[in-house]
Every structure is written in structure tokens, then in C-alpha cells.
Amino acid sequence: EVQLVESGGGLVQPGGSLRLSCAASGFTFSSYWMSWVRQAPGKGLEWVANIKQDGSEKYYVDSVKGRFTISRDNAKNSLYLQMNSLRAEDTAVYYCARVGEAGIGLRYYYYMDVWGKGTTVTVSS
Amino acid sequence: DIQLTQSPSFLSASVGDRVTITCRASQGISSYLAWYQQKPGKAPKLLIYAASTLQSGVPSRFSGSGSGTEFTLTISSLQPEDFATYYCQQLNSWGAFGQGTKVEIK
User: Is B31 helix (H, G, I), strand (E, B) or coil?
Assistant: First the structure.
């Protein structure tokens, strides 16, 4: 069964750090881009970061640049999100997602086709 | 940055209704658009990618269309399990989502 399981969430004070993990199983992890997406309480989805299959390319939403770092360990089938200098506005459920790819015509199209159940991060004093 | 605006933000409909949700991009994104369904307390579920390609296992009452800056998600005959929040996402330049459209029972 294709599965993603997040862990590492919790309560942290403003300015603190937290490392999220995402364990992948049931597919060849090293063949896919991976993403983190978050959802603040009662709000919509927000893409946070992406990482290429070999970790050579990483992209972030502006609001987390310089504070969050996405990484992966293909030998362990694991994705990570190191979050530093946390703020109240980082409070959210954090999902990891697999980025699928489909070739249609001469183009490749991407989409997030497998999602974990999420882990909750609360930033509060 | 590319912004996505969904309309309406809220929609009240009955079982059997035809429902259309619109997603507008602030600049052209070709067909690099996906649609997701999310139910309360659950992770999003992929419905459509490349603007109009139905994800495997998704019922055929869901369809997507559009390219460039204007896209639509249509549910041809709303079923009880379709009451949820729907999001569009652009993947032309990684990742932004629309603000969501909540579909509720009339």
C-alpha cells in the first residue's frame, strides 16, 4: 500500500524549532519530487516547500524562506522539514505529499497524488 | 507570484444538482492546474490534473476544463459524498492553491 506517515509535530514556543518527518512506503521514494503543504486552523491549503528526487533542487514559499529547510534521505525513504524561528502564524497541520508526474503530449504535468494524514504544529507561549 | 482566485467561496446545492466552480489565475499557466477535494479532518484528495485529466478512481461525474487563466471544475450530479471543500492548485511555478470553495447541502 502506498503510504505517507508524518510525525514530529507538537507544541513549541515562538522562536523555537521543530523537525517534521515523513516516512514513505509502498513506492519508489527516490523517483519522486516531494512536498510539504500546511493548513492553518480553519484556513485553506498552503504549499510550503518542494524537493527534487536527488535533493538537488528545493523551493519554498516566501513566508518560510530562510527559516525552514526541506531535506530527504532516500536510503531511509524519508522526507524532513526543519523549522526554525517559528512564529504563531506557522501553527497548522503539516502534510507531506508525493508529487506525481504525467507526460501528456510534449509536456509533463505535476500533481500531488498521495498525501499523509498530517501532523499538527502549534506555536504558542 | 501567481495567484489563484476561486469563485464562489461558498456554494449551497442539493443532491443531483450540477455544480461549477471557477478558478482564475493571475497570469497564464497553460494547463498546469490540479483540483483537490478535502473533507473535514482529512487530507486532500486529488481529483483532476493537467486541468482536465481525471485521476484514476475518481467518479466520472467530476470533470475539469480550461487553460491559460480560467478553469472550471464541474460536478455533473452532486452526490451526498461530494459535500466538501474544493481547491485548485497551479503547478506552473510550484504550488500555490486557491482559497477553496466549500460545497454545502442546501
Answer: coil
**Inter-CA distances, A125 with A11, A12, A38, A122, B29, Å:** 9, 8, 21, 10, 41
DSSP state of A114: E
Nearest residue of B to residue A48 by CA position? B95
Q: Which residues of B touch A42 (CB under 8 A)?
A: none
Residue-wise pLDDT for B22-62, tens only, equals 999 999 999 999 999 999 999 999 999 999 999 999 999 99
What number of other Cβ atoms are within 10 A of residue A31's Cβ? 10
Of A95, A109, A116, the CB nearest to B50: A109
Q: Do B46 and A50 touch (CB under 8 A)?
A: no
- Interface contact flag, B44 A45, Cβ < 8 Å: yes
User: What residue type is B53 in one-letter code?
Assistant: T
Take residue B76 and report the three cell numbers written for it.
455533473
- Reading the block at residue B18, the C-alpha cell is 450540477
Cβ atoms of A35 and B95 closer than 8 Å: yes
Q: What would the mean pLDDT of B83-99 be, rounded to a whole number?
A: 93
Q: Say if residues A103 and A2 touch (Cβ distance below 8 Å).
A: no
Q: Is A58 at the interface with chain B, CB within 8 A?
A: no
